[in-house]
Write a structure and sequence with these properties.
The complex is a heterodimer of chains A (about 160) and B (about 575). Chain A has about 160 residues and is of the alpha+beta class. Helices cover about 20% and strands about 40% of the residues of chain A. Chain B is built from 23 helices and 20 strands. Classes of the chains: A alpha+beta (about 160), B alpha/beta (about 575).
Chain lengths: ~160, ~575
């Protein structure tokens, strides 16, 4: 099952190394990942494949890891309950415009290296003329758990490329 | 104008501000500036004979005090040798601060002499690892290290110190607050969850407390006893939980799991509510998971949210410090009136007692060949009530867990999660440094002892009066037992008959030692050994064929434990006897 994890870490790169090691040891299959650097630390977004029975433990393990903060976890939600959208558009930046047109009230939570996480109102408002949401690179999501209180501030990555 | 100090001086002042009294270490090139400053620092340093032993000693110190133990080693091999000890501390959630020297900052990454990627290696073995880049950063890093080590779920923290940082001069600014005196304590439960938990407890007819090291880490033994007595709930402890509840208390069931008593494991199987407190559903406790407390609802109290639903799904989790959570449960039960405790609890306790009578922990007490359990019971009877017991890993560890009468917390030292042979003796050294006036007894096997016995020199040099009890069966006993029972007696490389004479060896270090080969001499030897304040060694030659029962076979559930030798072993022993005639 696909899950999207976002988190922030302190500036010390050893924390990111620890994170990679945790993913390896806990057997998470990393499908895509982006790391953005900010003056105060790093932000990371990753799509992983792991059984639903393990995700609670992984979320809790990450949120209690020293140097890591502000974890959020989203589950793949291929239904109208989806309220987040992950988009990989390295080669097709026009798809971002399509999303923004289709969901004018959406917020970009993370953007880095062609990877975007949007908060949208709800997929039930999906206009029928927006195609491609079922294509690879579009992952509708619902929030599973977060250590933050306000969804709007879940993770703000470097707005680059 | 503020005075500047070397990094070494700043480090030692930072340690003093964390109330560090003793460091276990071994000097080397990268930490020479620090040892130079240590020369007149007023902090005691014990030179251990191997860095792994320094980590174990710091771990032992931490277990008996609850404060971080500190070890100090040089770069490269000094640091790599430390890793086993740190991993053991991590597995058992023991607060240790490890200080490692590093090559000068300009040489890091250049494969310099005695350079190793210490911080990289420490990643999976510590809660946090720091590389200090500037001497001025030392106070805040040390403060963070001590605070992280004791906060929430405790554990080891490593601080890597390049030689150039130790030599560089800087103006030091020491942050107020923080450090080991200001641990963070996670609490995520709310009053509604406490009420739900108490509902579960009051509804249960056959509840069982399953208690781990978290109770000791949070100093919650008093609250545990109050809770168990108030709600009439029997208490089973993990290996890490020994000492958290008095072994001879009427509600005590002793240890559960792979070598748990029949009554204890059977009670787990029949319980209708399992209350895990500071325990992590380790595979040595659960056996085959689908058979573990299969009929019980499960309530888990743990400070580490990552332990919730990790191995066994639970019905309700209270994430928080055991001390505070148990207090809240006690208060809620009292609020509801203790008379609401069900009368069925008494029948449950009687049922457990009948299982205890059916298959008590036992051995041949009258054999002239010394039975290892007899040695442990004898020490238990003769030693002081507050004696600290340290063990190595193997059969003697399990027999001590089964037969020693633990009366109070922080008196039991065991590398439980990692199961590190060689731990027992140096950990005892660390404990003795924390409490010079208490009896500290290291039970070691003849296998594990040979891994760290070089610290016999340390206890003589510093007059550390540890009493060493060698449970000598001339083999790697637990491995032999498994090969006997589970590998058709295909004994492969378990023979330790070529070990040194431990008595002569101890004497060569200047330690009084004696060998005991007959049961009748056991008690007197123990009394004599415990009568003075000097290091002593007793080499007990015990029955080499004795096995540790009960045992839950690999892959089996607790209900499938063997309470004695399996039939094929008994038949072969009968045949052997026949041939002997």
């Amino acid at each position: 099952m696909q899950w999207l994890l976002t988190l922030e870490s302190e500036r010390d790169p050893i924390v990111i190394c620890r994170l990679m090691n945790i993913f390896r040891r806990k057997g998470l299959s990393i499908e895509t990942m982006a790391l953005a650097s900010k003056p105060e630390g790093y932000s990371c977004i990753t799509v992983v494949d792991t059984p639903g029975t393990d995700i609670d433990h992984i979320f809790n393990f990450l949120r209690r890891t020293e140097g890591v903060s502000n974890i959020a976890c989203y589950r793949h939600e291929p239904s109208a309950a989806a309220s987040f959208l992950f988009v990989e558009s390295n080669d097709h930046p026009e798809s971002i415009n399509r999303i923004l047109e289709a969901f004018p009230e959406s917020k970009i939570i993370f953007a880095s290296h062609g990877k975007y996480l949007f908060e949208v109102r709800s997929a039930s408002h999906l206009p029928p003329n927006i195609s491609g949401l079922a294509e690879p690179g579009f992952l509708p999501l619902s929030r599973f758990k977060t250590s933050r209180e306000h969804s709007q501030m879940e993770l703000v990555g470097a707005m680059s490329s | 104008m503020q005075r500047s100090f070397t990094g070494s001086e700043i480090l030692l002042e930072s340690l003093r501000r964390q109330s560090v009294k003793v460091i276990f270490g071994l000097p080397g090139g990268a930490v020479l500036p620090l040892y130079d400053a240590l020369y007149s620092a007023g902090i005691r340093h014990l030179m251990m004979r191997h860095e792994q032993a320094a980590a174990f000693a710091a771990d032992g110190y931490a277990r008996v005090t609850g404060k971080p133990g500190v070890c100090l080693v040089t770069s490269g091999p000094g640091a790599t040798n430390l890793m086993t000890g740190l991993t053991s501390s991590l597995m058992d959630s023991i607060p240790v601060v490890a200080l490692t020297g590093q090559v000068p900052a300009a040489l890091i990454g250049k494969d310099a002499f005695q350079e190793a990627d210490t911080v990289g290696m420490a990643l999976p073995s510590t809660k946090r690892a720091f590389l200090v880049r500037n001497a001025a950063d030392i106070p805040s890093v040390i403060q963070q290290a001590f605070q992280i080590a004791v906060s929430d779920r405790p554990g080891p923290v490593l601080v890597d110190l390049p030689k150039s940082v130790l030599m560089e001069k800087a103006e030091a600014s020491y942050p107020a607050g923080g450090g080991a005196d200001h641990p963070r304590r996670l609490r995520e439960w709310n009053e509604g969850e406490i009420r739900r938990a108490v509902d579960m407890i009051l509804e249960s007819n056959q509840p069982l407390l399953y208690v781990g090291g978290g109770v000791i880490a949070s100093n919650a033994s008093g609250e545990l006893q109050e809770f168990a007595e108030l709600a009439h709930i029997p208490v089973a402890t993990t290996l890490m939980g020994l000492g958290s509840f008095p072994s001879r208390h009427p509600l005590s069931l002793g240890m559960l799991g792979m070598h748990g008593a029949y009554a204890t494991n059977t009670a787990v199987c029949h319980s209708d509510l399992l209350i895990a407190v500071g325990a992590r559903f380790d595979d040595r406790v659960t056996g085959r998971i689908d058979g573990f407390a299969a009929h019980a609802r499960k309530l888990q109290l743990d400070v580490d949210p990552a332990e919730i639903n990790k191995n066994v799904p639970v019905d309700l989790a209270l994430v928080g410090d055991a001390h505070e959570t148990l207090q809240a449960l006690v208060a809620e039960i009292r609020r509801r009136d203790r008379l609401s405790i069900r009368p069925e609890r008494h029948q449950w306790l009687q049922r457990i007692e009948s299982w205890r009578n059916e298959h008590p922990l036992e051995y041949d007490k009258y054999s002239n060949i010394i039975k290892p359990q007899y040695v442990i019971e004898a020490v238990s009877q003769i030693a002081s009530e507050d004696a600290i017991i340290s063990v190595d890993v193997g059969q003697h560890q399990m027999w001590t867990a089964q037969f020693y009468n633990f009366r109070q917390p922080r008196t039991w030292l065991s590398s439980s999660g990692l199961g590190t042979m060689g731990y027992g003796f140096p950990a005892a050294v660390g404990a003795q440094m924390a409490f010079p006036d208490r009896q500290v007894i290291a039970f070691v096997g003849d296998g594990g002892f040979q891994m760290t016995l070089n610290d016999l020199a340390t206890i003589v040099q510093y007059r550390v009066p540890v009493k060493i009890v060698v449970v000598n069966n001339r083999s790697l006993g637990m491995v032999r037992q498994w090969q006997e029972i589970f590998f058709e007696k295909r004994y492969c490389d378990i023979d330790l008959n070529f070990s040194p004479d431990f008595v002569k060896l101890a004497e060569s270090y200047g330690i009084r030692a004696t060998r005991v080969e007959h049961r009748a001499d056991v008690s007197e030897a123990i009394r004599e050994s415990l009568s003075d304040r000097e290091p002593r060694l007793i080499d007990f030659w015990v029955d080499p064929t004795e096995n540790c029962y009960p045992i839950v076979p690999p892959g089996a559930s607790l209900a499938e434990m063997l309470v004695g030798p399996p039939q094929f072993v008994l038949e072969e022993e009968a045949l052997d006897d026949l041939w002997a005639v």
